[in-house]
């Protein structure tokens, strides 16, 4: 129950967490039938760490990801099928269907991973696994020809 302190690049971490929370809150609101039902479906956030890793779990009780959707959550522009939204409160790219794929890309760039587990009829857990910057963080850059090679 004590505070967990760690250093990280705030822009990337902020983008990923806003996306995960936005998705959980949105799914909860869509699934709930009234205000009382919303209160019965809390979104839980767990932050766990050791000297090497940080794991952040976002859990909701919004019924899970529909079976027919499956891995399309990782497809760019999948979310755009519902139409563009003018709501710009979450992220500048809200409504374009790039949130989860870009979040996973950010996590992988930082040497981590973003995983989503759906529990049909119950809810969804999102796991953000990262290496601590001060311990093992390494920038992953593709190897290959550069413009400076002859």
Question: Your description of this structure?
Answer:
With 150 residues, the chain is of the alpha+beta class. Helices cover 28% and strands 19% of the residues. It is built from 4 helices and 4 strands. α1 packs antiparallel against α3. The protein is globular and about 60 Å long.
What is the gist of this entry?
This protein is α+β, with helices and mostly antiparallel strands and 150 residues long. It has 4 helices and 4 strands; from the N terminus they run ααββαββα. The protein has a 4-stranded antiparallel beta sheet with strand order 1-2-4-3.
- Global Rg: 17 Å
Strand content: 15-25%
* Mean pLDDT, all residues: 82
Helix proportion? 25-40%
Distance between the termini: 57 Å
**What is the N-to-C succession of helices and strands?**
HHEEHEEH
**How many beta-strand segments?**
4
């Amino acid at each position: 129950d004590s505070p967990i302190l760690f250093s990280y690049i705030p822009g990337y971490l902020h983008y990923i967490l806003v996306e995960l929370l936005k998705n959980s809150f949105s799914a909860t609101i869509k699934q709930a039938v009234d205000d009382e039902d919303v209160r019965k479906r809390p979104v839980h956030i767990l932050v766990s760490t050791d000297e090497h890793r940080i794991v952040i779990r976002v859990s909701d009780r919004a019924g899970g990801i529909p079976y027919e959707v499956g891995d399309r959550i990782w497809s760019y522009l999948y979310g755009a099928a519902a139409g563009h939204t003018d709501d710009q409160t979450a992220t500048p790219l809200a409504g374009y269907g790039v949130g989860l794929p870009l979040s996973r890309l950010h996590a992988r760039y930082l040497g981590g991973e973003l995983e989503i587990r759906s529990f049909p009829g119950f809810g969804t857990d999102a796991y953000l696994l990262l290496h601590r910057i001060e311990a093992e963080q390494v920038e992953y850059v593709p190897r290959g020809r550069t413009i400076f090679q002859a």
